[in-house]
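Why do we care about 3D structure at all? Because function follows from shape, and shape follows, mostly, from sequence. That is the central idea of this module. The next example makes it concrete: a single protein chain, its amino acid sequence, and then its structure expressed as tokens.
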Amino acid sequence: MSATPPACRLCAAPLHRTFVDLGRTPLANSYLKAADLARPEPTYPLHARVCDNCFLVQVEAVVPSAEIFSDYAYFSSFATSWVEHARAFADLAVRRFRLGAASRVVEVASNDGYLLQHFIARAIPCLGIEPAANVAAVAAAAGVPTEVRFFGAATARELLARGQAADLMVANNVLAHVPDLHDFIAGFAILLQPRGVLSVEVPHLLRLIQEVQFDTIYHEHFSYFSLLVLERAFAGHGLRVFDVEQLDTHGGSLRLWICRDAADHAAAGDGLARVRALERAAGLDRADGYAGFATRVRQVCDGLTRFLDRAKAQGESVVAYGAAAKGNTLLNVCGLHGDRIAYAVDRSPHKQGNYLPGSHLPICAPERVLETRPDYLLILAWNLASEIAEQMRAIGAWGGRFVVAVPAIRVWAPPP
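And the structure:
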């Protein structure tokens, strides 16, 4: 007897169609201490499916959210370009919605205060909701009011009772991390002021497919979104997408502007029509639009493995830059370990001294690259490739070159 298929987390239809099965991997953000290396490392199935009814791409919640997010290794402020992105967003939101001292901004998954700090600098009341206590402590120390908790309907009702209704809510790159989409979205419908606005940023499934960004699939990313799916999800809770922007962040994202159905925010510009048309043209409203992705994933892995094998045969050294979750998916799906890559580096001191899950590469400070002078720097955090290449342009002094593997091998030298 065959196993009962999992149910779609948005519409509850049975999931029969595979998008891509990446096998078993460890949790992408579960970095290891030296003592952990001697113990068996837990791995979990990483099987992305697409719903034939609503077209949500998703992986099963094989690990409870609290196990992933209560103590978290990602601190937003270590990505300079992301902090600048947040500052520009704050400028835009203040102007567009005339926010001031009488307004309230609530950010869900506020991390280390990277975004709310820009509203606080304008004397706009703010509140961050962040489940990772270690990250929230950094925000609080920087003067960003932060509550350590998961967001959902119950949290929203409690905040509303305390007078915390929001004129602007922000949820950047968190919707994918939510196993219970309905409870999460219901929270926004509860806490928004009648004319309040919700801004949501998500990586765009269309770009994931077009650019073979399979390494952005990992266990803490439960869902992968198109505008088609998002409009349906928010409409189910009385919320309406009135504008959408296409962004370059995280390999290509959407920024949705959302309000209550009854609010008077009119559809702005042609953003919605343009993205809807792009998704229809790509077949995201049909099952066959999701076919063939696994073959393209194998081609990326084969290309990276051939490059590393050739470098090793020629006596050339390779170091990885970016202890990012996407890099861990890439390394583990490709089956790569220390025999081809010497070590990894990352700017975050919270990751340095640990080891990458699965591959067990040691994580060092970027300065180690200058000491060991590798021939290639493999940028795992390819969404920050320009920023990283500028930071590490000194590798050109000894003829070092940069490499990115997704969507295909690209090698380049830093400018003189």
